[in-house]
Design a protein that fits this description.
This protein is of the alpha+beta class. Helix content is 50%, strand content 11%.
Length: 268
């Protein structure tokens, strides 16, 4: 399901970028692909797929507003402590506590390519329940960060047209991913939207489909910009040729989208 939508978003990019003659038009092309994925995620929710108890399809297109709180600390009573999800959260909780270093809060600051710094999410320790939470950035900052992601991807498109990529440009994709992670737009479904869009964008600018790390949204919020870069450096890889790929698990928001492949692309 995610793979089909990534292919559809790639089609939007191919069509829009074929006639793009300016930086602004290229930015608009990437935003159009992102909007296409967002609408797909909403339609999936209307079909009753990937909705959480107590949530509605309208949450998938409802603006996030003043921010969303995510609990990083797993439930030690209700959770399966041997599950990959529990272990992942415990690992991220440890990272957060190390970064907090005894304080009750820290502000992630995001450095854009222009040199400007924008407030990202906050990481907080709540003494009462003894848990770590993250809170998304303010709406205006999130809008700046989403725009910055599309701008970096437009720059990569221009670099591709000019003759290829180098290691610095490969790092630029990681920056674009981090900006998008820091700029969620909707109450629900942002993880699937970001992952599917980033697969299409990477395939367009590098002619190769990526397999993204499993929890890039939480990694970005808990680890901060430098920690996110390290995770992407260690775990981002290129998808295997289609004949060797396992089926995509359409029942999980965090399923890797691995069916796109154009060959070549981002050597690591």
């Amino acid at each position: 399901m995610q793979a089909r939508e990534a292919n559809a978003a790639l089609g939007v990019l191919d069509e829009r970028l074929a006639g793009a003659g300016s930086r602004g038009e290229r930015v608009a092309a990437f935003e159009a692909a992102y909007r296409h994925v967002a609408e797909w995620r909403y339609q999936v929710a209307l079909e009753g797929k990937w909705t959480r108890p107590g949530a509605s399809a309208e949450d998938v297109r409802a603006p996030l507003g003043m921010g969303m709180v995510y609990r990083v600390t797993p439930d030690n009573v209700l959770s399966d402590q041997d599950s990959p999800a529990f272990k992942m959260l415990k690992s991220l909780e440890k990272v957060a506590l190390e970064r907090l270093d005894g304080s009750h809060g820290l502000q992630n600051r995001v450095r854009l390519h222009s040199g400007r710094r924008v407030n990202g999410n906050t990481v907080r320790y709540i003494p009462g329940p003894r848990e770590v939470r993250t809170v998304t950035a303010e709406p205006d900052d999130r809008e700046v960060l989403r725009r910055a992601s599309f701008e970096v991807l437009a720059e990569l498109e221009e670099a591709k047209a000019a003759g290829g990529t180098d290691p610095e440009q490969r790092q630029a994709f990681v920056d674009a991913a981090y900006f998008l992670v820091q700029g969620p737009e909707f109450k629900r479904g942002s993880d699937a939207i970001m992952r599917t869009f980033l697969v299409a964008a990477h395939t367009r600018v590098f002619d190769a489909a990526p397999v993204l790390p499993q929890a890039i949204d939480l990694d970005g919020m808990v680890r901060g910009q430098e920690g996110f870069k390290q995770v992407m450096h260690e775990q981002l890889r290129i998808a295997a040729p289609p004949a060797a790929q396992p089926a995509v698990d359409a029942g999980s928001e965090r399923a890797a989208v691995t069916s796109l492949n154009r060959g070549g692309g981002m050597a690591r």
